[in-house]
Amino acid sequence: MNVELQNAFAEIGALLADDTFGRGFEIDIVTQDRREAYQLQHPRHDPLTLEVLDVHRHLRHLVLEVTGWRLPISGRYLCGHDESHWFVAGLPFSRKTGTVRGAMESLKPEIVRREQRRQGVRHGRERRKTRAYVRQGEWFFLPRPKMQVAEPLVERNGRLVRDGGKPHLVDQLYRVPGRDETFVRGRVRHADHLTIEFDVWHRVVQNNEFVPARMIEPVQRIAWSD
Questions:
Q1: Cα 145 to Cα 50, 78, 154, 170, 199, distances in angstroms
Q2: Which end of the chain, N or C, is less surrounded by CB atoms within 10 Å?
Q3: How many Å apart are CA 143 and CA 131, to the nearest integer?
């Protein structure tokens, strides 16, 4: 095991499990000795080059760059702790950054960054609640206090989910007819996050995490324009 890499993960309080071999490259969260641990999977005959570009001990986050000879792509990943669990997020190629704070900012869609500027909110994805948005996991919620909806079109007990992930359960969900825009109101619950509750409608946008297209559930379509 790469000792320098192991030490970097230890700096943020994370455990790094032994590598496994497969057809492609993945970073997974597994359970080892009753603890969550990061585990890297890669082709057996494809030596990886792994470099930790930045470590933020206070936030318990780091940025990892991965390259390999046979890998179809090279990538950068934000690894860190969010509320009660460890996570990994593939960083978008369009906003290449080597710092933890830059990585956090790159995961915000343009509509979120635009709302930050409008509300005078300073950068900092570690803040889950600001005047501009509330965040729960990979979802951002932007307040729309003047929003009016057609009540018969409101879905009760809706879901926000990606394939392979745990659903975020929503009391009320509204999709604008003919437009890829989704709004929620009431409680938003998730097994790994604190419940949040909205008295007014909030626009929903998903973060910019790089994932294969098949991982986005077709029933939940999100648009980036506002």
A1: 46, 33, 16, 18, 9
A2: N
A3: 8
